[in-house]
Structure formats: structure tokens, C-alpha cells
Automatic annotation (TrEMBL), chain A:
The keyword NAD applies. It comes from the Eukaryota. The lineage of its organism: Eukaryota, Metazoa, Chordata, Craniata, Vertebrata. This is Aldehyde dehydrogenase. Pfam families: Aldedh. GO terms for molecular function: 3-chloroallyl aldehyde dehydrogenase activity; aldehyde dehydrogenase (NAD+) activity.
Automatic annotation (TrEMBL), chain B:
PROSITE patterns: ALDEHYDE_DEHYDR_CYS, ALDEHYDE_DEHYDR_GLU. One of its GO terms (cellular component) is cytoplasm. Pfam families: Aldedh. GO terms for biological process: aldehyde metabolic process. It comes from Oncorhynchus kisutch. This is Aldehyde dehydrogenase. The chain crosses the membrane at residues 468-495. The gene is LOC109883854.
Amino acid sequence: MASQSEVIDRLRATFRSGVTFPEQFRMTQLQNLLYLVEENEQLIQDALHKDLHKPKFESVLSEIQITLNDLYFAMENLRTWMQPEYNIGKNLATRMDDCFIRREPLGVVLIIGAWNYPLHLILLPLVAAIAAGNCAILKPSEICQATEQLLAELIPKYLSQDCYAVLCGGAEDTKSLLKNKFDHIFYTGSQVVARSILLAAAPHLTPVTLELGGKSPCFIYGHIDIQKAAKRLCWSKFFNTGQSCVAPDYVLCTAQTRDALLPALRETLRTFYGPDPGASLDMGRIVTPHHWRRLMDMLEKSKGKVVIGGESREEDRYIAPTVLVDVQESDALMQEEIFGPILPILTIESLEEGIDYINRQEKPLALYVFSDETSVVTTVLNNTSSGGFCGNDGIVHMALPGLPFGGVGASGMGSYHGRWGFETFSHRRGCMNRSWLLERVNVLRYPPYSDYNLGWLRWATTFKKNSWGGCSVM
Amino acid sequence: MEKQAVQRAREAFLAGRSRPLEFRVQQLKSLQRMITDRQGEIATALKQDINRSQYDTPLFELIGLENEISLAVSKLAQWAAPRPVERNLLTISDQAYIQPEPLGVVLIIGAWNYPWALTLQPLVGAIAAGNAAVVKPSELSEYSASLLKALLPRYLDQELYPVVCGGVSETQELLRQRFDHVFYTGNSTVGKLVMEAAARHLTPVTLELGGKSPCYIDKDVDLRVACRRITWGKFVNCGQTCIAPDYILCEPSIQNRVVEGIRQTLLEFYGPDPKSSPDYGRIINQRHFNRLMTLLEGYTATVGGQSDSSQRYIAPTVVKDVPPQARLMQEEIFGPLLPIVTVSDIDDAIHFINEREKPLALYVFSSNKKVIKRMLAETTSGGVTVNDVIMHYTLNSLPFGGVGQSGTGRYHGKHTFDQFSHHRACLVKSLGLEEVHMVRYPPQNHQKVRRVRLAMRTPLVDFSKGTYIWAVTASIVALGLLVALTVILILAAGVSCTCL
């Protein structure tokens, strides 16, 4: 059983050999990863069900298909992404030169997965890392043991063992892994751990991407079809039993909207899960007894009124889809990200009040607005910040590969998905290939200096409004 | 005091003052006026700090800065506008775009070697992106720092863009505060401390560090021109440039000619006695002077080697046949000492470079396209200039930044704006097309799973203006052709038709 440093050294030696650089190699590995997912769908679904009681539908939609889509997208676009970028502005001085931006691999990267979407949160960054030509160490979450084992077994079978390795273990193993030098660290998880990762990366000057979380607010305001809004809200909130980093955490609406919303929510939940969600095959469970306890504590301490749900069962870590009203800013449910099937509704009197409230908190990973009124959507957009934004729906903005997925402030730094992942795991190297000609013009820049030369240089290099770029000195 | 400056900047930012585009443009134009009005004073400060010649100041600090400001003013509306992204069939009727937004209050820590350019160029991007910015110039270039502290508040909004001066303890106090981004230019030792301090607040950082930038000279090259360009880049600002060619790699057969080429050029540039040339600079302070002199210990200079501690003067110096383990080759020189290390061929050179930390810049002089291609493909570095030095810095459409130990992040031109912005992914849907969305809701069954899979697999379409125009034009042309074909067929058929 190789030690951590042996594995890292092996990968580094492979990277140095340059074998991951050619397009063909990257394409083959991506293709193999595709086979891994396609050929083992049932095993994956079983593992996810074992770990998270994940309904088959959710496994397919939010773990398998999203990974496959990202793979298709990467394979289709790899050649384009790898091309040096020539279409950049030049100016008088560099007209005769070749100027371009190369995308180059970074080296050996570390990808730390999370437990709520244990497959895609580790494989999507891997797709990007492979596409960008790196070697990668995967550290799946130890909380989802079945998925962790499956990945440890399958990855070496399908992908090059000299380039990609899975290292399993708990908190202590991760700590010791972080003592090593990596060329990029990609972490999905909590703020507390994120801090220690950044502190571990600093002595090595390793760049880091952090996909964290936060309390993603959801406005329901103004003129809106409350039935449709309730459907989309319920879907995005209770998907994966609320354990999504971009789940709408809480709702902000007026008392009037709330009164219309509650019956719509009740009806939707009944349609989705039947009269007893605990018996529905489409309802998931909380990941561990510890997380179940955390949620129950929050619920117990809350001063809000439970109007829907509230039932729970410790044996199978079940919590019913629960909605509370009359929740204040100081409530136990409003102090940390909920990450469970509990939806507090905060009543506001005006949009401004809601916006002020949001701006008093940390910047969230996602922000949602349900409204038919463009002015409402625009006002919220212009006066708040968040990792991403979705109007009139929840979560789905992360399924569009053209949009970067990432946080800001306490919700994270950096982004990925599609081309953004490729850029995250690449170094953008600015290259200028100067021509040998025009040396007579170069002479203007050499000492001994003179006012005369400086005058000409200034004229030649000052940015002209219609030119594409500026040059500061010849 | 530092805490208050940051607090005031945050309050000013939260009040929304820095966001309107007109305000940002007005501040940038004001910054432009400051540079134009106060050129003389800036040049004097630089002369006192680092003995910068009156021509080097506009050339290396101010022209670049002015160009950045003009570019930002001219392109701001474009940069700040929403950037549409491709959509698929599921999102065909929705708006999907990336909205650049200000981050908040950023910290810019400048460096002493180009105290105006390296402190104000990031500031241009920070202002353009709509942020507030606390500016901390380097205390080592003290005259420039005091001048900046006196001038900036007279031209820019005092609360949004405060200047905080001071040494290590003031910087540490600043770093204890929470910022939304920290931009640091300097050395990697302090870079690590900056990153560590930022880690506590989960603050992203841009680090513009340094390293030993190698300069490979191929044997079949016009040495006269190559040496002139290298000499220029190496000895400008007395070698105190983060992207100066740190050392030369070449084959033994051309080493002497390289030395001669440099010697000749030095005579042309600075005359027989560089000490008396107005165009040759000095070392920033005694500590760095001593550091450089120590590096030279035990080696005989082939060119130069003279020094004068009282003036912090070190002559442009070249050392031949430097062994890889010499002190000169262990740390970034950042001074007017140019070691030449011999390598047997391009393979040896590439191997030599790759054994070391990733540099900020890499230079290769060659007329052989294959050599250039190999150098580019088999090494990495922050940036590259081929057949010249430093110049990639000057084109602001190229991203400027390091990789690995030479730094993280990039800037210049639009890249600065992007570095100081949050790129917020926005999807604005309608509540229509609900029938399509029904497949995703529980209760679930096999058919729904199948349908959802199909829906998710739709390809992405580019709805940009260009594609739109192309699509419409192509459709019109196709329709036109179809009509023409139909008419022809009818006419042809009409010949044999007796229905009329």
C-alpha cells in the first residue's frame, strides 16, 4: 500500500514526463472516464442509495447525467480550449509580432470531494483537471463510504494509474495530505475546513478553488403564479433532502404572499411525496446520525411555528419536508446554513427590507427571486451579490455549462463547470514572439536617453482610442 | 488608524458610491490628471528613491499607466456589461449571462522597484471594477510613498481610496482586517504571509511575485541584436525588475561572443563609466546592496564588478561560466549582475529550467522555429517574450502574472478588471413552459427518468448576434434558392404542360 508521498511523487514524475500534455492522451482519459460512468451506472446508483438513500431519479439527474454532460461537453470542446488564443489586441509597436495566450497544465492537483453529491462534486473537477492536462489526486469524502470505495476501485481500472490516484481516509489523513505541495487545490465543503486548507496552501503558494456554501435566500415577491413557484421551490429545496449547497435556504416574502404560498406548498408536497413523505421512494434521508441530530437541534431551538411537516424518525435519519413561519433574524435556524429539508419563511414588508437583510449577511452561494415583475428581479440583482443567481427557479443555473459555478466572499473563490473548469486548472501564459525586424525602431528605447527619442516613443506608444490594446514602451 | 481607513472605505462602498460607471470614469480621469499634472514631482521622488533617470520614469512607469487608464475609460461600459452565454433547449427562452460585479473593499500592496506603476496599475482595475481600495505603497521607496499619500486624496475620493503608509507592523495591522481581495506585488516570502493572513478571512489573493527568469540564447542567432535587447532589459532600473532576464543559458561556443556583445552594448548605453551616466540607476538601499555584493563573492567579473557603497552603485556586471550551485543561482538576483551558465544544448537548457521553480518570465533568442516551439511546449513560466525581453509586459491584452512560486492571478488591461470583479452567473427564467419541467418533479418513474435524460442532453446553442445574423442570412439564402429551384422546375415542367 503506497504512502501518500509515494503516490504524489509518482504522479509528479509522470507529469514531468509530459505524457498528459497531448490532446490524444487527454481525450482517451476523458473517454475512459465516460465508460467508467456509463458502464457502472447501476453500481453507482446502489452506492448512492446506500450512502444517502438517494432516489434513483436524483442519482441519474444530479450525479450521473450531469457528469456525463460535462464529459461530452469537454470532449467536444477540448481541441478549441487547448488552442493558443491569438485573437488578442495588438498595437503599432507589436504589429509585426506574434502575440498569443497559451493554456498550460499546472502539474499535480488535489481534488477534495464532498458528501452531498459524492460523485459529481469529485468527478466534474476531475474532468476539468484531465482536460487541462494535469495529474490529479482525488480525496473523496469519507462520510459516503460506499461511493468512496467504488471510486477507489473503479478509477484505477479505467484511468491511467500513473496520472490519477484516489486516496481515501479521514480528517487526519487529509491533514497530512495537505502538508505536501500541490499545484492547485480544489475543495468543496465547509468554511471551517476551507480556512485550514488555505492556511496549508499558503506556505507552498498553492492557488486554491473553494466551493463553499452559505444561506441562499429566496425572494417570492410581487406578481407571481404562486402554484408554479411553489412547485419549483419545493423541487429545489427538498431535492437530495435539502442537502444541496445551492438549495434555497429560506424564503423572504410578504405576509400576503406567505398566506397564498402555504396551501400551494402543502398541495405540491402531497403531489410530490404523497400523504406520508417518509414512505415515498422519492424522499431521501439525512446523511449521518450526527447531521440528523444537528438539524433536529436547530428545529427544537427554533422559535418559529411549524406549519407543514415536522415529523422525524431517528432510526432511518428521516426528517419530513418542514416549513416554519414567524421566523426572526435571531432564530436558531438563521445562524448557519440549514442543509436539510427545513424551510423557514421570514416575513418582510418591502423588497428593500429583504435586500437589507440579505446584505447584512455573508454573500451566499446562490440567490433566488420568484417574480413576474422584471423590476423586482433587476432591483434584487443590482443591490445584492451572490455566487450565482436564478430567477423563477432553483438550482438549475448550475446545469448550464456556459455559466461559471462558484461563490464569492464567504461562499467561495474561483469557479468551474465547462470551460471555466478548464481555465481553473490551467495557467494562462502570455507569449510575445518578437520579430527581428524593426530594430531601428527599437533603438528609440535604448540609452543614452534623449528628449527627442522619448517624444517619438510617446507618440508611438500612447493608446489611441480606436486601437485594440495599449503598449507602454517599445 | 489602519482599521479606521478600512472601515470608512467599507462604509463608502456599502453606500454605493463607487458603483455608477460615470463615477468610475470620473475617478479614472482624475487619476490621469494627477499623473499629467505632477509628472515633475513624481520624477523627483523617483530620483531620490532609486536614482531613476528622468526618461525612465515616463518610459517605465507613466506611459504604461496612462495607457491603462485610457483603455479602462474607453472600454469600461463594455467590460461592465452582462456577458451572455450559450443556452440549450431547456433554457432557450431564458436569459443566461455573466454579470461582472465589484467585490467590495480591496487591498493593494505596492512594490518599491516601480512604485507608481505597480501600485497604481492595479488601482486602475480596482476602480474600474467598482470597488473601494486601500492603497499601501512600499515603504522602501519612501519619497514616492509620501508623495502618493499627499497627492491621491487631492484627486480621488478620499474615503473610497485611502493611502496607508508604514512599515511591517502597519502592513500586518492592515492584513488583520477583512478585505474582499488582496493584491500583492513583491517577494515570495512576504507573499506567503499575505496569503496566510488572507486565509483567515477566506479572502482571495493575487500575488505578483518573482523568480529567476532564464534567458536562453541559441547559437545560430544575431548576437549583436540579441545582446543589445538583453542588456537593455537586464540593466534598466539597475536590474531591479521582476521580469529582468535573471541569468543567461547558452552553449560554451558562443559564450565569449555573448560577453563581447554585452560589453559593446554597455559602452553604447552608458559610456565607459556607467557611474557618471545619468541613465544608470542605483540600488534601492544598503541592505540590498550588501546582499548583491555577497552574491558576487568568490567570483571574478568578466565585465564590470566595480562598486561604491556610499552611492549604492554597482557597475553592470557579467560573470562567465557560473556553476549551477553558485549563490548567484540560488535566489532571484534583482540587481545588475548577469551570470552566464553554459549548457550543452537545448535539451540541457530545458532540463535546467524545469529543475527549478516556475519563473515569472522566460526568454528565448533563436531564429529556429523548432527551438522556439520546444522551449514553449516543454517549459512553463508566467509569461514569455521570444527574441526580446520584458516586452510581453507591455501589451495589455496579454495577461500578466506568475505561476507556481512566481505568483497567482493575472492583470493588465481587461484582466485587471476581471481580477477585481466577481463574475456572477445569472439565469433568469420565466414560469412558462412548465409542461417541459413536469418531468423533473416527483413522483418519479422510468419514463420520466428517460425523458429528463434526453432533455439534459440537448446541445448548447450560441445566441450571440453574429450567429443570429448568420442564421437569418443563411435561411434567407436557402429560401431564395428553394424558390429559384421551384420556379425553374415549374418553368421546365411548363414547357410540356398543356393545361393553359
